[in-house]
Design brief:
This protein is α/β, with parallel strands linked by helices. It has one domain: Spore Coat Polysaccharide Biosynthesis Protein SpsA, Chain A (Alpha-Beta Complex). The chain has 9 helices and 7 strands; from the N terminus they run βαβαβαβαβααβααβα. It has a 7-stranded mixed sheet with strand order 3-2-1-4-6-5-7, sandwiched between helices. β1, α1 (20-25) and β2 form a beta-alpha-beta unit. α6 packs parallel to α9 and α8 runs parallel beside α9. The longest helix has 19 residues, at 214-232. It is globular. The N and C termini lie far apart (39 Å).
Length: 235
């Protein structure tokens, strides 16, 4: 039962001062600890996180999104997590969904849970997702499903939960420090045949929510495509 397991939420943070309190406020009480890793923010993210009583780990220099997650997972495992939930502190993903992630993993239905924002084009665009992001998300997800034989709604969500065993056995420490880290992790999870579940997550794009620009989105898309080719041909 999940109630007997230690549940830790990790937050890879960068300039999240405007949204951090809202995010933390909506995290369910079943969570045992919240770890925030700050990637050299220029705002008051660290100050607010400390006021909220979070465990805060500041990076001495900006390492990138993947590097931030690596520190998150290392700390969560060191702190004895049985279930690790990664959520961005920008309030783009609804923390109230954490209880469902925990139940599905804790009751041993799945090893990994994803919060999927792509249920319909209308809903995604109404939630503020830029059209080019929706199109690229759908195209990359279709490609990744084809090369892996899966049928996931979205490969590019920033809300994920892992059973400890998954983080113990996949080699996330060796992956990119950039945004393609997420795809590399998920390809490895598929390769090792862990069970992946999905929960619908509302689409919430707004000014304060973090989002990579068009140029970085293109680089991310090309890097993700290459990861798919490597998976397909076992490179």
């Amino acid at each position: 039962m999940y109630k007997e397991q230690k549940i830790i939420v990790v937050m890879p943070a960068y300039n999240a001062a405007a949204t951090l309190k809202m995010t933390v406020h909506d995290i369910p009480n079943l969570v045992d600890e919240i770890i925030l890793v700050d990637d050299k923010s220029s705002d008051e993210t660290i100050k607010i996180a400390e006021e909220l009583g979070l465990f805060v780990w500041p990076h001495e220099k900006n390492g990138g999104y993947g590097a931030n997650q690596k520190t998150c997972y290392r700390l969560a495992l060191e702190h004895g997590a049985d279930i690790v939930i990664m959520i961005h502190p920008d309030y783009q993903y609804d923390p109230k969904l954490i209880k469902f992630f925990v139940e599905f993993i804790g009751d041993d239905y799945y090893d990994v849970m994803l919060g999927t924002r792509i249920r319909s084009r209308r809903e995604a665009l109404a939630g503020g997702m830029p059209p080019y992001k929706y199109i690229s998300n759908r195209a990359l997800t279709i490609f990744q499903n084809l090369v892996t034989g899966h049928n996931l709604s979205e490969w590019h969500t920033g809300m994920r939960a892992y059973k400890r065993e998954v983080l113990d056995k996949i080699h996330w420490q060796n992956y990119s420090n950039d945004f393609v880290f997420d795809s590399q992790v998920l390809f490895q999870i598929v390769r090792q045949r862990y069970r992946i579940g999905e929960i619908p997550a509302p689409v919430r794009y707004f000014k304060e929510a973090s989002s990579i620009n068009f140029a970085r989105s293109v680089r991310y898309g090309l890097a993700t495509f290459w990861e798919g080719i490597k998976y397909l041909f076992k490179i």
